[in-house]
Structure formats: structure tokens, C-alpha cells
Amino acid sequence: MTSEQQVVPVNIEEEMKSCYIDYAMSVIIGRAIPDVRDGLKPVHRRTLYAMWEMGNTSDKPYRKSARVVGDVMGKYHPHGDAAIYDTLVKMAQPFTYRYQLVDGQGNFGSIDGDAAAAMRYTEARLTKISEELLADIDKKTVDFTPNFDGSLEEPEVLPARTPNLLINGSSGIAVGMATNMPPHNLREVCEAICRVIDNPGLSTDELMKIMPGPDFPTGGLIMGTEGIRDAYMTGRGKCVIRGVAEIEEEGRAPRIVITEIPYQVNKARLIEHIASLVHDRRIEGISDIRDESDREGMRIVIDLRRGVAPQVILNYLYKHTALESSFGIINLAIVDRQPRTLNLKEIIGEFLKHRVEVVRRRTEFDLAKARERVHILHGLLVALENIDAVVATIRASRTTEEAQKALVAKFALDEVQADAILKMQLRRLAALEQQKILDERDALAAEIERLTTILSTEANILAEIRKELRDIAARYGDDRRTRIVEAVETLEKEDLIEDKPMLVSLTASNYIKRIDLDAYRNQRRGGRGVIGMATKKDDGVERVFAASMHDHLLCFTDRGRVYWLKVYDLPEGQRTGRGKALVNLLPLAGDERVTAVIPVREFQPDRYLFFATRGGTVAKVPLDEFSRPRQTGINAIKLRHDDALVDVKMTDGNQELILTTRFGQSLRFHEDSVRPVHRNAMGVRGIRLRNGDALQSVTAVEGDHLLTITEQGFGKRTEFDEFRGHGRGTLGVRNIVADARGGTVVGSIAVYENDEIIVMSASGIVIRTKVSEISIQKRGTRGVRIMRLDDGDRVVGFTILNAEDRDEE
Prior knowledge:
Number of domains: 4
GO molecular function, one term: DNA topoisomerase type II (double strand cut, ATP-hydrolyzing) activity
EC number: 5.6.2.2
Protein name: DNA gyrase subunit A
Largest sheet: 4 strands, mixed
GO biological process, one term: DNA topological change
CATH topology of the largest domain: Neuraminidase
Subcellular location: Cytoplasm
């Protein structure tokens, strides 16, 4: 080691920390985060400035992109041609930039993710709006700094007449931070800035009336303004963007046509994703997908199968594909060489601060130039007034320097004026030329007065900025592309399921399933039906009813408890399938069985549930007392130890009811004789029973007739007038013959003439038939055969299918 060398001990932890911070700041300031003033990162700024410097402007022919990239890399940005060309390409893409900064000719990529052609094949030039970013750069409006090798100078920032950060947005990932700023509409941004100039205390809510939210180049729908308001208030927020899709019902099958997709979504990948969902059977009902996009615009056509619900398919696409995407807003920008998260007013304020400085420096530059010119004109006018003496003085001088000094000394001029006189052409001696000088002097005097006025107060500078912004909005502004609509609630499972009528069947062993009603074709009365469920030898279908997919199912058990299910949560089985045990869907205890299921769409407070027990007890409870589901269930009615809940019906509180027993007795009474009680009440006597009899069903008096069906497939319709009102708690009257041939009563239900019924047997045989084919008979008769049964089989349940259900089907 020489005497001039020495070892300096360094703490490696501190050294690495210092080096990493230097690297991080270099990436933040010099690469990834835009400057709040012109909205550009260094590579964008250098590309635009290089194109401006080489005369590659909008009024000149296109230049090869390779030429531009070479200039930028050789003079200002030595970080590789790929990064520069990628920047150039993005600034030329109409689906990336809301207002393109580069006018490209050739293949600059597509919204399908296709890459741009090589730089040797494409050409580019500045757009008119990008020239507004560079306007006045030659008037000392911004500071310049040496380039990477000190051979040239480049601008630290562009003068930026347009609020580029807001109208085009920016995105980038630095070290430990990122920015993601959306584009906005130029007219709205310019108007908002003008309003802030007029009223600096303008609130964010008032600004949002002018500038309601982002405006993406690909259009789309922004769902709600809450996330936008958060971003405008705090600098961070999130907006949900949906593609624009229409449902076309023309033709035999419907289709979904997508004309706009969310910002930064790859169209080809979106289509591929939808196709994969169809292939994997995660979405049903799509028969074909076609991309019919062309130069006129985007058009993705999704053909659907007949009978499917288009809105459900569209909801599924919103939920599971990029057709609905979130844009996380992070308004991070460089302010005074430091990264800062800014709210909307701060972004506008920083832009205005920059523009005030630019306009001041530009005005000072123009004022100095005007004063210099007036000074020279004064000298020329002195020379013209004394032209003979001036000419004589010049002729008497041996050199130019001697003539200059003589003019300065003799006519009280300075060197600049004397030099201008020496350079003056003889044609200026003409009278008209002299008048031009006078006119120019007067015009400059007015201009000097105007420029001086601008510089006199900041308010005048802001007025100049306002005028420029309105001019820019008028020349380059366009209509908003992205519409802002009311937010919709998050798509739930229900939104992805078609609300169609289903047949729900429940076996004696509490197996349940749902199946499309169209699985059962209509048959004439007395037919044998089709297999509706394959059951075990010791099991049989006990109840069957129709419900819509979105209905709540209130499942009441023989112990008087109630549990909640959604119809779409039931297993969808084949026509002959058995279904799924309710014990796997509900937390049933021991031998607890579901004996009644009520489909409910809305829990209206003016509706009631009317309970009937095997021992003839009835109770009436308001429906809204069951509106808050509990996973473990709740007590619905209190039962005596030897009783069980057999049936539940929904009423409006002002109906007449008919109770029907196993032995065919029926009792009609008005429900106002049963006062409403709260849940878990005991109830009162509904009908008096003979030995061995049991209450089987309860139905409301509505419709045209009372339909009663027995176990052996016999049934009839009876006029309601046949059942005169009796007092609650009496025996009632004979309704139907319940003997060995007809069997005991399965139940009664009110029907209309144009209804259909679906009847199911214990062995799972199902028949669907019209009510009008069942004859009307008096009380005390057996009825007609509705369903022909095999030996040992019996009817266990039936449900009504009214006209509305058939229309939905």
C-alpha cells in the first residue's frame, strides 16, 4: 500500500441501505412515476422532445419509428430501444391513450393484445394536442438540464398547456410504490380547472358536478361514484367498470352483443375465457361466441340457447370474467422531486402553479424581445430622421467598427442600435417602409402594454391560463365515452341463477329435490303418468309443490320448528332421481321430519302463516316474524307432547279457510276467529276430530272450486258454496267418501278452471293434468279417477300449477 492509499472502513448495512435508497429514488424519479406538471415520465418526455427537435410535427410527413427511437436513445435515453419503442407505440394507441400523443402509421398493435410491427416498418409524428405540451418551450419557459453524457440539454419538464396527467392518466410500478391514474375528459377537466381559477375554495362535490369521473378510451360503464369520490378526496379509490352489452331477443334464440369492454381488458383473452367457461360447463346456455369487430367498432356476439334467461348469463359474465373489472386509483406523482399521493384539487393546484410559472416566464421572454425590438426601431427612426448625416458619417468611416463608434457618438445611440442601422437595407428609405417601422413600433408598444398588464398580477396570469384552457377545450375536446351509472349491489349467487318455476318433491324419509316443470308433459285425466322419482322400497314421495328458483323455502318440521333454504340451494335432480337428504341441508335433530314447506318471495308484514296440527289445533303468526334466517332454525309453534305439525298455509289475514281431515271431513270458517300470535305460541282448537281421524290439510277459500284427492287416485272439484260456514272447533261436514276403494284423503286445495295440477305417487310416478278435466261434484261423493296406480301404490301429494307459472315456464 502506497502512502497515498488508505482503507476507509464502511458499515456494509449502512452502505447497502444508502445504495438501495439511491436506486429506489432513481427508479421513482427517473423511470416509473410521472411528474405532476406535465403528466409524463422521463421516457415519454424525451421521446416527445426528440420528435419536436427533429421537426417531426403534425404538419410534416411521417418519419420512420426507428429514426425516432435512434434519436431518443442516442441523445437522451440510453436505456435500450425496446423501452423507447414500447413508449412510442402506447402513445399512438387509441385504446390506451384517451388523447393520443403520437400519430402512428402502420401496425401499432390492437386491443386483442397483438404486438406492434417492428420499428423499421412503422412511422410516426406528433399529434396536434401533443404539440400543446411542447408549445413555448423555446421561450425559456422551463429549465433545461444536461443529458446523460453532458453533450446536450433536455427539458426537466414540458410547458404543458394541456393538463396531461388528468386527461391521459398514467400507470407505473416503482420501488415500494405504484401509480395508477385514470384518464378523464378534456372538456370536463378544462372546465374544472377554470372553475378552480374562479373559485379556489370549490369543494370536491362541486368539482364532481363538472368532472364526474374518469373517461376511458374504450368507453364502458362506471358503476357508482363512491370510489371516484374517495379518489378525488384522498388520492386513492376504486371504480368498477362494466362493458356495454345489449340483449337482443330477435329471432328464435336470444343473444348478448358486447360493444364496449372495460379499460385495459384484452378482448381476445376475454373471449377465450368465456369459451373456456362454456367448455368446462361452468356456464350453461351459450351456443356460440363470435368476434364481429371491425373498423367501425367492437362487436362480440354471444349466441344463447332457446329457453335460457339472457340476463342471468350476462350477470354470470359480469361476475366471473373481465367484462366487469375494477380500476384501483392511486394518484401518485412527483411533486418537487418527491413522490406524493394527491387528491383532485392538489393535482389541479400543482398544474396551475406550473402554468403560472410557464406563462410568467413566457410573458417575460416576449416582453424582453418586444422591448429589444422597440429599442432597435427607435434607432432606425433616428437614422431615418437624420439620413443624410448618417450616410455621411458612414461614408467618412474607414471600417464598420469605426462607423459604429461614430454613430454612437454623434447620434446618442448604443452599439445595438448602431449595428442595426449599419445592417439596414436601402429599401427602408422608401416612405412606405418608414411607415411600416412606425406601425411596428406602435404595435409593439401595445403588445408591451398587454404583456406588462399580464405580469402585473397573478390574477391576470390566471386569466390568460383560463383563456388558453377554453381554447384547447374548444379545439380538442370531445364527448364523454364512459357513462357513469348508479352502482348496483354486488352480484350475489341469486343474480346468476335464472328465476324459473320448479317442481319440488319431498319424500317420507325427507329426501328433497327440484326439477324443471317442463320435464312433465301434460296428460289427460286418468293417465298412468311418468316416473318422477325412483324411491326406496320403504320410502315414498310425501309432498310436492311448485316454487320459483329465487324463493325462500320455509321448512317446517313435525316438531314445530322452521328452517330456511333457497330453492336454488336444493339439488337439481333428474326426473327419476331421488334427491338429497334434508339432514344434509338442514341441521335437523334426530328423527325430526319436515312436514310442510312454504315458498316465500317477500316477507310482507300484512301476510300470515296459518299452522295446522294433526290433533286439529290451529295458529296464525305474522309472516315477517320469519324474515330473519338462522342457520340453526327457530321455534315456529308450540306443540302438545302427542301432537305434530302437519300443514302450513300463507294467508292475507282476511280469508276464509277450510280444514280437511283424513276421513274426508271439512270445516269452513273465517280466519279472523283465530287471533294472531307470536312465534312459539300454542294455538287454539281448529276442528273437532272423531276417533282415529287426523287433520290433513288447510286451504284458503279462493279460486273457483275446492279440489280434494284421495290416496287411491280419486278426486273431485266441489263448489265452495257446498261448505256453509261453521263455527271454529266443530266437526264440519262430509266432503268426500274416504273408504277402502278411494282411500283416505291426501289433501284439499283451491283451484281455478284454467289451472293444472301435478300429482305424485309414493313410488315416484308423476302425472300432470288440467283441472278442467276433473269433474265438479257435490259433497259426499267419491269423485273420478285422476291417476291410475299400480297395486300397492298410493297418491302422496299434489301441487297446483297456475297460469302465471305456466307463462314463466
